[in-house]
Write a structure and sequence with these properties.
The chain is α+β, with helices and mostly antiparallel strands and 571 residues long. Among the domains are: 114 residues, no CATH class; 90 residues, no CATH class; 46 residues, no CATH class; 26 residues. It contains 15 helices and 24 strands. Strands 1, 2, 3, 4, 20, 21, 22, 23 and 24 form a 9-stranded antiparallel beta sheet that branches. Strands 10-11-9-12-8-13 form a 6-stranded antiparallel beta sheet. InterPro entries: DUF5684 (IPR043739), LexA/Signal_pep-like_sf (IPR036286), Pept_S26A_signal_pept_1 (IPR000223), Pept_S26A_signal_pept_1_CS (IPR019758), Peptidase_S26 (IPR019533).
Amino acid sequence: MEISGWLIFILLVQVIHGIGTWKLYVKADRKAWEAFVPVYNGIVLMQIINRPKYWILLLFIPVINLFLFPIIWIETLRTFGKKSTLDMVLGVVTLGLYIAYVNYTQEVTYHADRDLKAPNKTMDTLGSLSFAIVVATLVHTYFIQPYTIPTSSLEKSLLVGDFLFVSKFHYGARTPMTPIAAPMVHDTLPVVKVKSYLAKPSLPYFRFPALQKIERNDIVVFNWPADTLFHMYKAADKRYDKPIDKKTNYVKRCTAIPGDNFEIRDGIIFINGKESILPERAKPQYFYLIKTNNINADEIKNFYQITEGYPLFEIKNEIWDKPEFKNELISRYAFEEIARDTLTTAVTGQIDQDIYNKLGLMISPSYFYGNLTAEKYEKLKSDSRISSVKRQISKTSEDGIFTDIQDGKPSVKNNWNRDNMGPIYIPEAGKTVALNKENLPLYKKIIGEYEGNDLKVNGDEIRINDQVATSYTFKQDYYWMMGDNRHNSLDSRYWGFVPADHIVGKPIFIWMSIDGINDGLKNWSFRWDRLFTTVSGDGQPKSYFQYFLIALAGYFAFDYFRKKKKKKEEA
């Protein structure tokens, strides 16, 4: 719904409010016309029911107002003597219209000095619960949101099982776009597994002023722009369009900001022609081909705690050397020769159990791919048990790389892959780019989907909103997000730009970290060195957990002696 539509809706509600309550205003010694003046009528009503005036501000905050409106309806009915359970239920289920029925059909008395305490324990509990939900929702939506790292795309910078606090106010808190939604849950209600929101009506995008701009190499939480799936880990039977604020939350590192020219050369990021220097805490990982010296590969994996990787397979040379057989394996199963000795050849490819058995393959005892940080690479390189360590760099075009559609066939438009792509201009609000058939795939989704234009292409002719276009001016900023786990991350290299209206917040603090979070409760172990650490900053992360424990002990000691002193004075 557009802003004009919401304004009309708000005015309509004000008219209904005035018609339905003006007699009650008169009963409270106010003027009838005061019930009809937008906003002012709410201030007057708060005075009538003896509630804080700031509640009127809360009524304009999406999701929170869903809880506050029923409270105000109930408080209004109680102020005029309608205190029964039936009255309260009717007030809520009729969306406040029962008040209009009372206004015109009941002879009521205004109780200016009524007891504000709940009439019974049940109502007291509901009131306390509602207040707690309102406060928690306010904090969750506009200040701090808890977030858990679900995947390894930022390993070893952020780990699976890290529990974060994400600041909403650093980049400016975004107001909800789905005003009718369950509080403090994302797109699905737990247990019942149904949608937690209504897609309509919707609010236009609005963001409060930010404390800071997104800088290069900031870690950012955002809504995944490409989320058109009913479930992010299952193939969709059709396209599911979600509201922006209900798309899946992702966390990545912002590698390029609006106005940058972005490029990857052999896995190294270049911004505006210069190599991008990562902060000290960033620990990018790449896959390396590792060959051991007469020692089983599993021993090396365990010793260096290499948790991500995959094996190589050995095929007998007498099979591999048959040209017609070899060509079939390469074309159909993407086999690739990695190394060779007198009896066997080490290969990779699309190898399932059936192919493994038919070809009589063996898992190579000395070759394997391991995902390594630079620090671990240096250690392996100097280990006498290791024959060689070589970083893998993709050189050929990759299926599904931006802007290619994943269809099982490598892109024929360019030679891009996870290690080599670009240069790409990162769009900046207000800046204009020339449009042609060659660069249109880069910005097609921006023009048609993110910025809501009608885009049509007929041969070499590009039309935007039925006008021939040779250039385009961007309406908002865009960012390029990537995981530090460079060879195991679904990121902008595959789905492109992240619009500014998809930004959620900035991770600032790790309050809990559990190793084995996805392996069952009995396999959990706390990473004590990561508890109460900051996400960004100079130097290596430092835990402040011990200081928290000292402060907590100090508080309890102070509270103990304070109470002891108070009892002594009373005696």
